[in-house]
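lol so apparently i was supposed to do this last week
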Amino acid sequence: MVSQAVFAGTVEEEFKIEGLISPASPKALQSALLKKLAVKIIELRLKKTKTGWPVLRLQFDTETISREKIEKVIGEIEDPAGHKYKVHHGPLLANAPLLDEEQQAIAILGDTPEAFPIMKNPITDKAASANRGEKLFVNNCVKCHGFTGNGYGTVAHGFTTWPRQLWAWNNTGEETDGYLFWFITNGRSDMPPWGLILSENERWDLINYIKTLKNPGDE
Ligand code: HEC
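anyway here it is w/ heme C bound
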């Protein structure tokens, strides 16, 4: 990173962005930024960036605004679905290939319905279920969603549809069961439809585990 501390003035800097998780997300980020800050957006490049992370390039005047301030504002913006963005500071991870069965599953995925059924989680021993779910999570989900559920998985940084921050579901009640089961079963965009790969009970174990994931920022 070039230091800007010595001469104030107009600079152009890059920000790696996490949280571009839906087609509407890039637009929402850009319009919110322009509303909140005196910056000029040079580009938001989603694909084929050097590091694999989406890159936002901004021009701004260091006399009136700092990089820290911009990062803070980016962290406060939400996309239309209520998911947050963040400037990426974490490690750059090497690409790990998807398994054959995952690629086939993604290929089979067509349009998915908007509506999802209300469902009841049939598993009563939640703690034992979450333990089984943790193993399934490490084997199947971490490569995209990351160990903390933050979406920093090794294969994910080329995606424009960001693997969601699964800790957002921490401690949510039964009302989210239908959505989670539906999403895990059917998948969407780069999320494989696990209904083709995992049993129903395994999917419920995963849901019980996901609900125990804590926001890594809280620790
Ligand atoms: C190949 C990468 C990949 C793998 C592996 C993967 N996911 Fe995902 N996941 C995604 C992406 C990408 C999204 C966002 C999809 C979208 O919004 O279109 C997502 C979204 C989700 C969502 C929706 C969350 C929300 O906030 O709406 C859940 C739940 C989820 N994944 C659970 C899992 C579980 C459980 C596993 C392991 C069994 C798993 N994922 C494995 C890529 C992956």
